[in-house]
Design a protein that fits this description.
globular; disordered N terminus; 9 helices; 4-stranded antiparallel beta sheet; mainly beta; Methylamine Dehydrogenase, Chain H
Length: 528
């Protein structure tokens, strides 16, 4: 195992060039675990959102999804006045008593929940969540802050099979591997995308209007799918045509909507598709109805704002507020057409060459905004197969592998990019994991620029400010297998299913939530 305390010092000027905050480096001894909370169901997917009631984490497993305030997960810490410090190999401490019965829950009736995504809606008090299931269906629900405070309410909007949106290409036998919710350039809910291993579909959010249930509040339904009362449009708005595409040569692992300041990052790029062989494809957005000029100008002004001001603007964008005439819901309705771009990049081939790329598999990917270049970059995580010799016999083993791209999505001109720079790295080999668990299963990137990688029951971290292109170019060998500052920061008693970062801060350091087995744990990553 690598020395967890050996971290190279990065000078301040280098951090400025990367565009990330100058956060302290992550040390294993600087990880604080507050508490773990046992749930009444397994945890297969987690996500988080910031609401007026606080930071909310959603955990899904089986047919159940539950909501929990992060502050309640940290409640024992606040009562005792001192956190429970733990090093990477110590086990979580269970909370006294099981309060899972107090958590709001929602049941999916069409299959086992496989993936989730969530986004904050205009107004800032409600979030829209999409879930994919093992039976080729899509479930939408809202998470809404209660006026009295406390845990939020979960209200199901719709649950529908995807076969009717894909002419039968997605059936009840297909597993939905990923979902994402796309906001348009003005910050309004635009589409929901779902993917199986070989089909991607993009559906206008208005299609779910007829499926609204009685327990989805009228205010939420107006925000999600209906024009605001002050809108000049009195007739029913047309829908953007559903887009879907099928793939046979490779499998889809992620669909990601590039977003910043709670709006689409680019006008022309709606969706990024990541495949297991390292291919990247774009779903483009074209305005076919409405004013492109008004939309573009609103998008430009929104993206130019500092993130704090941008968030304040989102919180003011409510149709009941005095600023409604300037909010995104007051803009004219826009009709979009989607298409699959012919532009394609392959991160494995670019980072490692065609021969080594044949032995690499991408398992997950995450987009993040690089303030220095004002571009969206991509982190991919995966597995590399290699031939090993054990007791004189040759066998295939696996190691973790990850890569960092240049600007995969630009504010303008993304599809004109002919070459995408990519740098690849190997992860440290863990002697505590089984051979088949040596790969990197998933990756998440915090707003502070920390990449969190999952390998079996172990959590690794890397400060992206330390991985500059200059350092990457000098470190990479011909096979793209350079080792960099990936450090193990925690391990759990069972396989980690996901990581969600939050805005909760203790002593100036943000907290993340880890889902594993039937539990949630809150970790504080930083030098303490």
């Amino acid at each position: 195992m690598t020395d967890l305390g050996s971290v190279a010092t990065v000078d301040s000027s280098r951090r400025v060039r990367t565009g990330f905050p100058s956060n302290p480096p992550i040390f294993a001894a600087g990880v604080r675990k507050f508490i773990s909370r046992p749930l009444s169901h397994s945890v297969d997917a987690i996500c988080s959102v910031e609401l007026p009631c606080g930071s909310v984490v959603l955990a899904a497993g089986g047919c159940v999804v539950s909501a929990e305030l992060v502050s309640s997960l940290m409640h024992p810490y606040k009562q005792s006045g001192a956190p429970q410090s733990s090093f990477p190999h110590s086990e979580p401490t269970a909370a006294t008593g099981d309060s899972s019965s107090e958590m709001p829950t929602l049941i999916a009736s069409s299959g086992l929940i496989t993936c989730m995504d969530i986004t904050l809606l205009p107004g800032g008090a409600t979030a829209l969540c999409a879930m994919g299931t093992s039976s080729g269906s899509l479930c939408l629900f809202v998470v809404e802050s209660r006026p009295t405070g406390g845990t939020p309410a979960l209200c199901k909007v719709s649950e529908t099979p995807l076969c009717e949106y894909t002419d039968g290409l997605i059936s009840a036998e297909d597993i939905v591997v990923d979902v994402c919710i796309g906001l348009d350039p003005a910050g309004r809910p635009e589409f929901v995308s779902a993917a199986t291993s070989n089909v991607v579909v993009v559906i206008d959010t208005q299609y779910f209007d007829d499926s609204l249930k009685a327990n989805a509040t009228e205010a939420v339904s107006r925000v999600v799918v209906r024009p605001p009362p002050h809108s000049a449009y009195t007739t029913e708005r047309p829908f953007s045509e559903t887009f879907y595409a099928s793939f046979s040569a490779t499998e889809v692992v992620r669909v990601v909507a590039p977003q910043r300041h709670h709006a689409s990052f680019a006008v022309d790029v709606a969706l990024l598709i990541v495949f297991d062989n390292g291919d990247l494809r774009y779903v483009t957005r074209h305005v076919v109805g409405g004013s492109l000029q008004i939309l573009t100008e609103h998008h430009r002004q929104r993206q130019l704002r500092h993130s704090k001001i941008g968030l304040d603007m989102v919180l003011r964008d409510n149709e009941f507020s005095s600023n409604a005439s300037r909010g995104p819901l007051a803009l004219p309705h826009v009709l979009y057409a989607y298409s699959l771009s012919a532009v394609s990049h392959n991160v494995c081939t670019t980072a490692a060459g065609p021969n080594a790329a044949a032995h690499k598999v991408v398992n997950s990917a995450a987009l993040f905004f690089d303030a220095a270049t004002e571009q969206m970059r991509l982190v991919v995580s995966g597995t590399e197969t290699h031939l090993t010799e054990h007791h004189g016999q040759q066998a295939y083993g696996t190691v973790g592998w990850w890569a960092l791209t240049g600007g995969v999505v630009l504010p303008r001109g993304t599809l004109e990019q002919q070459h995408l720079p990519v740098w690849g790295y190997d992860m440290p080999v863990s002697s505590k994991l089984l051979r088949e668990r040596q790969g990197l299963a998933s990756v998440a990137v915090t707003d502070a620029g920390t990449a969190l990688f999952v390998s079996g029951n172990e959590l690794y971290a890397c400060t992206l400010a330390e991985v500059t292109p200059v350092a990457a170019i000098s470190a990479c060998n011909k096979e793209g297998g350079a080792c960099t500052t990936l450090r193990q920061v925690h391990s759990c008693g069972s396989v980690i299913c996901g990581v969600a970062h939050t805005d909760v801060r203790v002593d100036g350091v943000s907290a993340v939530v880890v889902g594993f087995g039937t539990s949630l744990a809150v970790l504080q990553l930083g030098k303490v």
